Amino acid sequence: MDKVFLEAKSRIKNSSDRIFSCALSHGGDFADIYYESTERLFITMEDLEIKEVNRQLRTGASVRVIEGERVGFGSTEISTVESIEEIARIAARISQNNQKKEIGKFNLKQIQTPKYYSIKEDNTGIEEKCDLLKMLQESAFAADAGVKKVDSSLTLINKRVLIITSDGQFFEDDRPMISVRNQVIAESAGKREKGASGGGGRIGMSYLTADRAKQLGEKAASEALRLIKSADAPAGEFPVVLAPGDAGVLLHEAVGHGLEADFNRKKTSYYSDHIGDRVASELCTVIDDGTIKENRGSLNIDDEGTATGQTVLIENGILRGYMTDRLNSKLMNLPLTGNGRRQSFSHPPFPRMRITYLDGGYHKPEEIIKSVKKGIYADGFAGGQVDIMSGDFVFVTRGTYLIENGSLTSPLKGATIVGNGPEVLNKISMVGDDLEISDGKWSCGKEGQAVPVGVGTPTIKISAITVGGTGGKQ
Amino acid sequence: MESSDYRTLIDDVIKRAGRLGIKEIEATLAARKKTVVKARIDHIVGVESTTTRNLGIRIYRDGRFASSSTTDLSEKSIDRLLKSCYIDASVSEKDVANGMPEKNLLGAAEKEINIHDPKIAEPDLEQMKKAILAAEKAAFSYDERIINSEESAFSCSAAEIFFANSLDLRSEYRSTKATIYTRPVAEDNTNAENLQGKKQGDFWFSSARHLSNLLPPKEIGTEAARRTLQRVGSRQPGTEIVPVVFDPITASEMLGNILEAVSGTLVYRDASVLTDKIGSKIANDIIYVDDDPLIPSALGTRPFDGEGVLPKKLPVVEGGKLVNFLHNSFTAAKCSTSSTGHAGISLNGRPPVTCSNFRLRPGNTSPEKIISEIKNGVYVTSFSGKGFNATSGLFSQGAAGIRISNGKLTYPLSGFTLAGNILEILRGITAVGNDPLDALTPSSPTIKIKTMQLAGSGI
């Protein structure tokens, strides 16, 4: 794969002037070339047996032309210079000013940026990988006789990208990714429930140690077993305490999307035209960060070559900025934040999150739980969705407990919580000093493109939120 | 590359495998092309063209299985692919369910299924631009409260699928699909306590195998605007148990939940709430669901499945009785039955169980009539998120819609959840509309559920 990448790199670099002169043949403000070579290994295990091994190699290139708010885009899996020139001509069709831009001979300049991860050689053989999955599953089965079925998978991806811009800059990034997924079905007393666990990051096999494999197995088993013993969640309006880590996905969905620049430029976000305004309780500082070492959402550079950093979105309750890509930063006259991302070479980039979290506060987690007379505690969510226009969201909690008189009491089934993002931010009444970034397993979908992201939060208390209850009449 | 090159290439893959001593192999080559034109308000904002072309192989080696895919179609790469996949196959566990479908199931539909339109395969960009601008314009001119647009898009996709296996099967088909959608935005100033005027958005679309079967852009824009305005001034309902009517969009999503529960993937793992319900009555006599892969021009139509099986119409629910599950060859073998031809076209891994045209058969009652018989209830027009657990059967999902009072649609509702067990919901379907939505699969007409649990914080 190194060879494939290196050959393509020198071919594309040497012909970039030709490609750009096709891309900008009808006009256009800016163009870029993106080349990617991705290798993926996927192993699934079902009840201690390896079910399948799958390998993929995918390479390809795309050319994009930007003119004002218009974007022309072409992509191909045939990365010969002729084929890339052809997609450049397709992308050029977006231009309306019909003024060919003259492209002289390029002096490409490679731009170096700080590194938060790198691809390391993988010395573990396929048998060793399978053994680790087996260890994970054994620990799930060992957790309880009620554990009936375990499904697990391991995915390892090495993606190498090359970006060349029409202003003569060139960037490279080597992006590793491991992800482990595990699902358990447990049965007891005639009831059947599912539990799940997962993790990973921009790191190789060194993530999946024997200890971690065991933890992931036990975690899913204990969730399924706990659900069997769980009562239905109550319905009504209650204070909700969220555990540190995974629960940060609420911020990603309910607040993060509304702060992506494209929605604000189009004025379809709840937060349009509100920079400088108070949008959350003063306890809230929300950050989107690409620089956390080896996290699933980390990026050395985004998919337009912009170095990532820590982007403060909300500071002590005041809206400070949006997450931008090249197009929106230029049109909105806002700084480039390094949030221009894409799923692959066959997708155009637009603003996406990296690792989005609520910054730590000063309350002790115990003190937060103690402050609740009757409420709900949840350590995460089983997914959910938000309408970024209205800010309304619906989420189903996981790892849910009833809080009674300041202590966690009975475990509950997932509770559906219904609320409004901007309103919830104003109702965050306590923020713990225990910020935790989730062990990576989240992917974010927008306009049909999925990208890996990270989330995080300290323990937080939302003073009141509508809980729908689990509804089903058992 | 031309179609004939792909045909030669896939044949060559099987021959090379034979020379390497690989006895059981399936190969799929998919060449796809998609052109998208995007517009917003009154101008074109994007033109995108993507082509993809992948080769995927599946190897069975003494009951062990592995798969691999590549975008590099050189001879060297294909040899490498075959060799490494053959080695990977020795790693997996032996499973008697692993293998190709029985030879007598293989084939391709000869009937004229009419799923290719050259006008979509080679689209006219200027026409696409004109159409999508017309859809945007129609939304804005419908009502002055439509003040903005998220985006409208017109996409034309064409696919060429080539399939071959070591049982001497060579099959291929060409298909096309065009979709237009538009997403207008309305200002909603009805709730003054908010940070600023809320916005409301909704969408409408049309999707078809042939350009001539798409709804006119003007109609799409108008319907999108109507659905968007329908949300303005929404209130939250309280917690109540009421009759619920799902419009064809949300009813089709509900049918998608049923599809998940009748898929062999969950059934063989005993992970579906319907696993032990085969042969029993799960719904009223009026309920018929089938999956028909050979409906001419339909979106889910395919002449063969992802494993080269000749597909046939499959009844799933007949007069309320659950009669069949959907299987690929693996899940079928696990359940000691034969593939029903429901393997999806897949380049990586075991082909997933997918439906073709999975439809709830329309009844003869109009949606207006169904609504008119309800004193107090909810008409559901959209869901948020996905809240169905096919293992426990528990359904709990955020929704938005309109209050039904004395047989009439009155004011909009939002920010509530609907909950119940899928078994109860199925039994609760007491009316099926006469308004199928063929632009989707799974596809359902309007349905009425006798009662469901609604939860919200309103009064």
Please state the CA-atom Rg of chain A, rounded to the nearest Å: 24 Å
Mean pLDDT of chain A, rounded to whole units? 92
Residue windows where pLDDT falls under 50 for at least 5 positions of chain A: 470-474
- Described by the principal axes of the CA atoms, the overall outline of chain A is globular
Q: What value does the Rg of chain B take, in angstroms? A: 24 Å
Give the topology.
The complex is a heterodimer of chains A (474) and B (459).
Chain A: H1 2-14, H2 16-23, E1 30-46, E2 49-67, E3 70-76, H3 81-92, E4 109-110, H4 126-143, E5 147-165, E6 169-188, E7 191-201, H5 210-228, E8 236-242, H6 249-256, H7 261-265, E9 286-289, E10 310-315, E11 318-319, H8 326-332, E12 340-341, E13 350-351, E14 355-358, H9 365-370, E15 374-386, E16 392-404, E17 407-412, E18 416-420, H10 421-426, E19 428-431, E20 436-437, E21 442-446, E22 449-457, E23 460-467
Parallel strand pairs in A: 4-6, 8-15, 14-22
Antiparallel strand pairs in A: 1-2, 1-5, 2-3, 5-6, 6-7, 8-23, 9-10, 9-14, 10-11, 12-13, 15-16, 16-17, 16-18, 18-23, 19-23, 20-22, 21-22
Helix pairs in contact in A: 2-3, 4-5
Chain B: H1 3-19, E1 24-40, E2 43-61, E3 64-70, H2 75-89, H3 118-121, H4 125-142, E4 146-165, E5 170-188, E6 198-201, E7 204-208, H5 217-229, E8 240-246, H6 248-261, H7 264-267, E9 289-291, E10 314-318, E11 321-322, H8 329-334, E12 358-360, H9 367-372, E13 376-384, E14 394-405, E15 408-421, H10 422-427, E16 429-432, E17 447-455
Parallel strand pairs in B: 8-13
Antiparallel strand pairs in B: 1-2, 1-4, 2-3, 4-5, 5-6, 5-7, 8-17, 9-10, 9-12, 10-11, 13-14, 14-15, 15-17, 16-17
